[in-house]
Amino acid sequence: MIRTAALLMIVVCCADSDDYCYNEPHCDPYSWGDTFPSCHPLLEHHHSPINLDHHMTRNDSLGPLHLEGFDVIQSGHWTLKNDGHSVVLQVGSGMEVSGGGLTDLYHTIQLHFHWGGPASNGSEHTVDTRRYPMEMHIVNMKSIHPNMSAALEDPTGLAVLGFFIDVVYAENVHFGHISQRLSSVAYKGQTTKIKPFPLMSLLPKHNMSQYYRYYGSLTTPPCSQVVVWTVYEVPIYISWSQLAQFTSQIFSTEEDAEQVTPLQNNFRHIHPTFSRIVSASKDAKILKGAAGQPFRSAAPGLLLSILLLGSFIFYL
Questions:
Q1: What fold, for 2-309?
Q2: Over the range 154-169, which residues count as b (16 or more CB within 10 Å of their CB) and which as e?
Q3: Cα–Cα distance between 280 and 288 in angstroms, integer?
Q4: Is 85 a catalytic residue?
Q5: Residues near 135 by Cβ (< 8 Å), separated by ≥ 6?
Q6: What are the tens digits of pLDDT across the range 275-284?
Q7: Secondary structure of 47-96 in the HEC alphabet?
Q8: Of 46, 85, 114, 137, which is the active-site residue?
Q9: Which residue in 16, 73, 134, 252 has the fewest CB atoms around it within 10 Å?
């Protein structure tokens, strides 16, 4: 069966399958339900991503998560892969996530990215309808499960940490551990080895107590509603050139394809929260609503002026 095959082939949130895509005719997130019934938004009410807005509740019991092993260099090697849908970093064993309202221990498996195009933003979640340039997901599986198929049958089988990615003038040297190897995985199916580094160096480590929590789904087929989402308030900052490596230099097709296709806008559309509770952690900001217009690229002349002034650049 298609669903069973997808479960077995999943690399957590990014299935290594040609049965879905993002921005090709008759093949986008709105049509996934035709092949994967559980992706149909009218049949299920706990889909992700969602818009984060003022319809949330403060939960003072939500403190910082405990990220075991995130601040050390793991042994062995990690694998960076272009699976045709995203760039995935498989991190092996040695890291665990617990606390912060999670009732179980979760093993960290991989992280991957979602992005837009050269002139558009591509985060999956939005904040007051504003979309960030990118979003990074750290995927963790409940430790009691022997494999991913079992986790996808558990309503809280996965815990995903979501981080918005915004753009500033300076290079992020820690993010360079990944961005400097992207040329080796430009085309679908390509892999490269990466020397492990402290994963915490990528994260906004001084703001890890500020996040939003809700229950949702995978954002790729089979869209299983098994995810405890933790979306952090403070973004990761990278440079324009690091962003461009994703939006312009990664392809969803093999290197020898007759026509290579850039991998762009690999994000799923926003879904309604319905009756779900979205919680703000003890230290997170409660959003006020109507905070402004969606993030958008500024005109090149304006960006140049900002650069000359030496200011940080944000999407306005």
A1: Carbonic Anhydrase II (3.10.200)
A2: eeebbbbbbbbbbbee
A3: 12
A4: yes
A5: 113, 114, 115, 122, 123, 124, 125, 162, 163, 164, 165, 267
A6: 999 999 999 9
A7: CCCEEECCCCEECCCCCCEEEECCCCCCCCCEEEEECCCCEEEECCCCCE
A8: 85
A9: 73
